[in-house]
Amino acid sequence: MPEKKKKKLIKKQDWVAKLTETAEKQGLPKVVEITGKMSKRWGTGTCVIPSPLEVDELMGKVPKGKLITINEIRQILAKKHNATIGCPITTGIFSWIAANAADEMEKEGKKRITPYWRTLKTGGVLNEKCPGGLDNLKRRLQSEGHTVISKGRSKHFMVKDFERSLVNIKSIRA
């Protein structure tokens, strides 16, 4: 069989599989010591590397009309695992995987999906890498009563007065 045809037969791993299988493959969640280059940026202590399912679960607990930021998810995860911080890199990546898995499920006809549009970046900024891009996020957030504005002169958008809509993280259990 020619090489090109072989490549077409290999199915790309789907987002739901990435969401559910990553933790098992990488032994997540796990708490690691903050050392070396990490300590220059994050100080001393421990860092929890969450599982994608933990991040997805927290994103799924944000009710309609409310919002959460990646930093708040990190705080919840750090507290749950008795760590100093939640890893900003993996938490961000896993929220992106959760968003794409939710989009995949929605396209398959599922009605109850993780409301990924309610998870914002630091400062209430929309994540342009989410499924459907900024237009999709704006539409979904506006349908829940939020006002989306341009952030200064940049190409970034944010939820106006997002702090007023943040979910009480004490009410969300990890």
What does this structure look like?
The protein has 174 residues and is an alpha/beta fold. It has a domain at 14-121: Arc Repressor Mutant, subunit A (Orthogonal Bundle), CATH 1.10.10. The chain is 44% helix and 11% strand. The protein is built from 7 helices and 7 strands; from the N terminus they run ααβαβαβαβαβαββ. The chain has helices at residues 3-9, 15-26, 36-42, 52-60, 70-80, 88-107, 133-143, and strands spanning 30-33, 46-49, 68-69, 85-86, 119-120, 148-150, 157-159. The strands form 3 sheets. Strands 1-2-4 form a 3-stranded mixed beta sheet. A two-stranded parallel ribbon has the order 3-5. A hairpin with a 6-residue loop joins strand 6 (148-150) and strand 7. The model has no long low-confidence stretch (mean pLDDT 90).
Residue-averaged pLDDT: 90
- Strand elements, count: 7
- Please give the order of strands in the largest beta sheet: 1-2-4
N/C terminus separation:
49 Å
In the CATH scheme, the class of the domain at 14-121 would be Mainly Alpha
Please identify the oligomeric state: single chain
- Percent of residues in helices comes to 40-55%
Q: What is the radius of gyration computed over CA atoms, rounded to a whole number of angstroms?
A: 18 Å
Main beta sheet: strand number and arrangement? Answer: 3 strands, mixed
CATH architecture of the domain at 14-121: Orthogonal Bundle
The backbone outline, from C-alpha atoms, is globular
Residue share in β-strands: 5-15%
Count of separate DSSP helical elements:
7
- Low-confidence stretches are none
* H-E order: HHEHEHEHEHEHEE
CATH topology of the domain at 14-121: Arc Repressor Mutant, subunit A
